[in-house]
Structures are given as structure tokens and as C-alpha cells.
Fold each of these.
Amino acid sequence: MEVEMKIRGLMMDPVTNMPIVILKDVQGSMVLPIWVGVYEANAIALEIEKVSTPRPMTHDLIKSLLLGLNTGLRKVVVSELKDDTFYAVIWLDRDGDLISVDSRPSDALALALRLDCPIYVEESVLKSSKLASSVSDKASNDELRRMLEGLNDEDFGRYKM
């Protein structure tokens, strides 16, 4: 089963100093942090902040290609968590035909923002993520999870790299 999520914001992991995309379910009870690369976080941040660039970025180019080919973005799904790596699927709609495309979650999320489509996470991924955090470094993961769950709007100012 898929759970609809929204991008709540971006933050830096205080331990690894890596960017984290924070997904929160639409009911507001579950939080899923996904660690991403610096460039991927920047692509997401540019769209969150509605910053225009002088030339199209990669995700803007993909958006233009999809629109030019009359292909819609139906949804993106964070579909799997395997060996601490998240996987995603982009679901395209072309003339009523659904096409699935394997993707990194960061790219799928950047496209979802640009094309205003829903973001989902498989329930099994949410469960695996909770299980993984209880198995590995419990103290720091519990601390991070408490911090993520307690975030409010003031905690997310403008994202800076």
C-alpha cells in the first residue's frame, strides 16, 4: 500500500553534514528522512524556493521534454529500501498508457515538485526504515527521529548549501 507524502523541507544531518529531504505523510503522523547528495538537494531546494536559473537545470529539461512529448507525470513512489539505499519509480502517463521508470528518489522528488504531482512511499519502506533505525545506531537515530518529528515551520527557513 502506498502512503501519500509531502516534502516538508530540507535540512543538514548534524552528524554527517549531508542533506536530508524530509517527507511527511499528509495526515502528519509519519516522517521519512532520505539522505541525498549535495547537488540533488540543491535541485530540490531551487524548486522549493522557486529560484529561476539562467539556463535550464537537468530536472527542468526533463520537465520540458515530458511536456513537449505530451507525457504527464502521474506520481512518484519511493518503492524500496534495500541495503540502506532508497529506490523510486516515476509513473508517466502517455496517451493513457502508464510507463514506469526506475529513479533515484532525489530525482523523482525534484521532478514531482516541478510537475506538481503526488509523492507516495510504499508502506513497507516506512516499516523497513523504522526497523532499520532501531537495529543500527539506536541512540543517534532515536535522537534524530525525535528531532525530525518535532520540527515546525520556523525550523525550515531558506535552504542553504
Amino acid sequence: MRQHFTFDCAGDTLTATLDGADSTTGLLIVSGGNEIRSGAHAGMAALAAAIAAAGHPVMRYDRRGIGDSTGENAGFESTSDDIAAAVQAMRTRVPSLARLVAFGNCDAASALALYGPAAGIDALVLANMWTLESESDEPDEAEAAATMTAGAIRSRYLAKLKNPRELWRLASGGVDIGKLVRGLRQAAAKTEVTGLAAKLGQALAEMPVPAKLLVAEHDRTAMWFLEHWDSAPFAAARANAGITMARLDSGSHSFASAGDKAWLRERILEALT
């Protein structure tokens, strides 16, 4: 049964939706970007219904300044109070709840990595984690798409070197040497881990609860996350035995296709059981 209700967060009123079910293990969905709790094309509402049909209660909510909730939208890095209030609201609304798993995509995954364990969440499912600095308070997917990771550049040049036509262009002077040199420098560059990425690396290294990382391998945001994940500063995070990773051969940031949705649902159900 689907219920709508409100709860308090630092003097503001947040609006939530609960899909009820009998299991004592529940799911909290945290929306990414400026999306309302139903998600893009009602994707999170459909996901909640599917997880509830499998037996687990699911709560979604609009953070401050989004959708039906009051207050100021100050960006995902300012949502520690929202997450903590949502956890308390769900435990109050579902008193039989013994274990709470939280799911977030993009910057919601980053917010959960930073603030989830302290809020009382027992396990995390973090998809396509946002690791880039942005001039605004919100992640800019266009910004991620416009910049290639060093790994992507290396893959591109390796493919060119395997192509006889590209080798002929190089030998015959059909390649801009200056552009080639700049590209090779970018390909050889080490990934810088500063700012948000550094905070996330530390949070994952010290993560005290199980965390499942989900990656749509061809999504540019996910590619940037993997670039940071494979870097030396993330070595401690990679060594954390409580962290696992599942990769999907997809470029859909929001798991839009039917197959992607099914894959995401199964990974979340794995974390709930």
C-alpha cells in the first residue's frame, strides 16, 4: 500500500512516499540532482513499487527545496540533515524495521557515501557516483560528457593505432601533430584526486557498513568515477573488504532501458537479502 506523509527536517517540512511491505529490511531511495522523489519519467516510483512487490518496504522523499518539500535547495553536499531526518522518519513509520539499506544514483550516491553511515543506514547501494567538482551546487552531466578521462583517451588512441587507415593518415601527414601531442599528454596524465573526489575516497576507505558500487561502464559520470577509483589515492578504498562493485555494459546514467532497470532491481534486491 502506498502512503504519502510529511516529516520535519531542521524546521522545514519534507514530503515522502512509502510503499509498504512485510519485510523487516527496507529500502530508502535518495534522489539525485534536482529530481523529485518519483525520479525521471517516474523511474524511482516504479523501482519502489517493484521492490515493495518483492516484499520490502520502500521510502522516497523530496529533500529541502525540491518538489513538495519546503526550505532551500543548497545542493547535495548540504543534505546530511535531510538524510538523517529521512532515516528517522522511515524507522518511525515502519517500527518493525530492523535493517535499512539506502540507494542513490549520481550525486545522491556521493551524499550517501558521505553521510549515510552516520545517519544510521546499515548498507548502501551507490550507483554512478559523482566525483567531479562543479561550479554550481549540482552535478552537470553535460560537463562530465564534455571531458574525457585519461583512460578514455588512452583507449581511443590504442584503437587508432590498431587501425591501418589511421596509421596511413599519420604517415602521410594527415594528422594534426600538435593535437596528437596534446592528446598523448592527456592520456599519460595522472588522475588528480582533490576536493570532492578526495573526500569520497576517504569516506569509502573508512566505510563502516557494506557498500555495493554500481557502474554503468559507458556512462561518462561512471567513467570518471572509475578513473578516480583506479587511482593510487583510492587504494585504501579498494582494500575495504566491505565494498563490492558490479558493472553493467551500458551507457545509461539512469538505467533507462528495460534490461538496465531489471539489472538495477536485482542488484538492489541482493543488498536487501
